[in-house]
């Protein structure tokens, strides 16, 4: 069953009520509805319901403040229409999906341990793995409610191979279900691709990737894609981790030709736990500022990681070094 959604002063589109939130229905229809995380965390998809009936999927989603709730705001990624509706939201071309998201089942082909709490999951679908480097998929871990967002770490391919670098989060039901309840040969629901922090066609500027924790996967995909372009400038990769045992970026990038175009800088935030470590220490954004030849507005920046890291990098680049927003690309991971 489908309901028709009309954007005040704009387009109308159909949403499948069995499967889709308002946001996913819009993106599947090629509408440029604002979004970042797709899972209720960022607030980018706030809208007003002008008329009609809309179910709220997660009432406490952190993407809405108390003030937003009092003003009647809703999240498109946490809303599902119960009938035809009219909404108010400002759409933009930059959010129009280059590849329309597709939902189905993927089979786990293999799992490779990378660090004590991170593994590479390789999934296979019956359709091509079509996405832009830096985008993410929604996976539905077995026995849990709702989806979790994980970025692809490989490159798009016609063989339907989707690879993810996933960290087991202490107390995180989604990641623990993937590690403990999804065996090789099992199927898991996948809905992909989403996200806007993709590799842009602007090879003239040197490219800087900054990864922290679970933000490693999209930075790997973007670095692999950039290094595959023969005419692209060098890539500088900063990999933030707690200890040396948590680092795996360099080995995963080892298959990228040609290695001389890649500089890799690991940065440890807990160096005391890694005896003998002689590399960079501290916050990864501090090392970026220290290690890169200035001025910083000569680079194109891509970064992914936990919200405090994203905020610190964004503040450092935009407010302290005047890097234009158009040269900054990021997604938040929760
Ligand atoms: Fe809806 Fe982030 S809260 S896209």
Keywords:
globular, binds FE2/S2 (inorganic) cluster, single chain, about 325 residues, 7 helices, Rossmann fold, Elongation Factor Tu (Ef-tu), domain 3, about 20% helix, alpha/beta, 2Fe-2S, Ubiquitin-like (UB roll), six-stranded antiparallel beta sheet, 3 domains, six-stranded parallel beta sheet
Please explain how this structure is put together:
Pfam families: FAD_binding_6, Fer2, NAD_binding_1. Keywords: 2Fe-2S, Iron, Iron-sulfur, Metal-binding. This is 2Fe-2S iron-sulfur cluster-binding protein. By secondary structure, the chain is an alpha/beta fold. It folds into three domains: about 1-95, Roll (Ubiquitin-like (UB roll)); about 100-195, Translation factors (Elongation Factor Tu (Ef-tu), domain 3), CATH 2.40.30.10; about 205-330, 3-Layer(aba) Sandwich (Rossmann fold). Helix content is about 20%, strand content about 35%. The protein is built from seven helices and 19 strands. It has helices at about 20-30, 65-70, 175-180, 215-230, 250, 285-290, 305-320; strands at about 1-5, 10-15, 45-50, 55, 75, 80, 85-90, 100-115, 120-125, 135-140, 150, 160-165, 185-195, 205-210, 235-240, 260-270, 280, 300-305, 330. Strand 1 and strand 2 form a beta hairpin. The longest helix is centred in the last third of the chain and has 14 residues, at about 305-320. The chain is globular, with a radius of gyration of 20 Å. The relative contact order is 0.12. The mean pLDDT is about 90.
